[in-house]
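2024-03-11 09:14:02 INFO worker-7 job=invfold-0412 stage=load source=structure_tokens
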């Protein structure tokens, strides 16, 4: 098992100031957001034999599987960065539009004669232009990826099995420089266990009224 994880401090309801959701640079950190991915190791050699663990490395297909997984994660990270940039652009346009509307309103209140007013026409044109830019930016943001990944992760961990470490190394090499640590962490607790079918929940006797 391979684990890609992070712990980023940011404002409330946000992953970080430059990742999944937008928050201001001056916001006081009030929460910690964790984003973790568990990835199963790729195909490996000598699966059904009792050979030593060091001989159970990835096959050619397994290496390709790990590489494609890294490419997919990197694509999501880059798409998420574009979403954040679009959110910032929309925020700036909303702020500019609000200010332009206020300027137009104040100008109308201070100038009763609006006939053939060049300044008034320029202010109206600016409001219309900003409104169109905002609508276009919001449309592009909605068309962006809905899966938001953080722009940088703390570490990549793997179990002490050869196949897991090789999978993690390939993924890390692909998604760099989006990982802070340069080496794969080894954690034996990430070893996969034999799958077990969960038992049905045990309910109190009164939950079975038809049974004697």
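2024-03-11 09:14:09 INFO worker-7 stage=emit residues=212
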């Amino acid at each position: 098992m391979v684990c890609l994880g992070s712990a980023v401090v940011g404002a409330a309801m946000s992953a970080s100031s430059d990742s999944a959701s937008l928050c201001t640079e001056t916001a006081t950190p009030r929460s910690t957001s964790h984003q973790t991915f568990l990835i199963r190791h790729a195909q490996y050699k000598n699966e059904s034999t009792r050979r030593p663990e060091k001989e159970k490395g990835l096959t050619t297909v397994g290496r390709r599987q790990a590489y494609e997984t890294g490419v997919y994660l990197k694509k999501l990270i880059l798409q998420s960065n574009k979403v954040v940039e679009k959110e910032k652009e929309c925020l700036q346009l909303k702020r500019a539009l609000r200010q332009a509307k206020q300027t137009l309103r104040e100008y109308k209140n201070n100038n009763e004669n609006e006939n053939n007013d060049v300044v008034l026409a320029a202010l109206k044109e600016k409001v219309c232009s900003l409104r169109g830019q905002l609508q276009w930016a919001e449309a592009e943001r909605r068309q962006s990826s809905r899966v938001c990944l953080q722009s940088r992760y703390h570490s990549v961990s793997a179990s002490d099995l050869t196949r897991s470490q090789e999978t993690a190394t390939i993924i890390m090499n692909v998604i760099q420089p989006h990982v802070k640590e340069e080496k794969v962490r080894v954690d034996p607790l990430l070893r996969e266990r034999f799958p077990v079918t969960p038992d049905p929940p045990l309910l109190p006797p009164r939950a079975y009224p038809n049974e004697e």
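2024-03-11 09:14:09 INFO worker-7 stage=report msg="The longest helix spans residues 60-110."
2024-03-11 09:14:10 INFO worker-7 job finished
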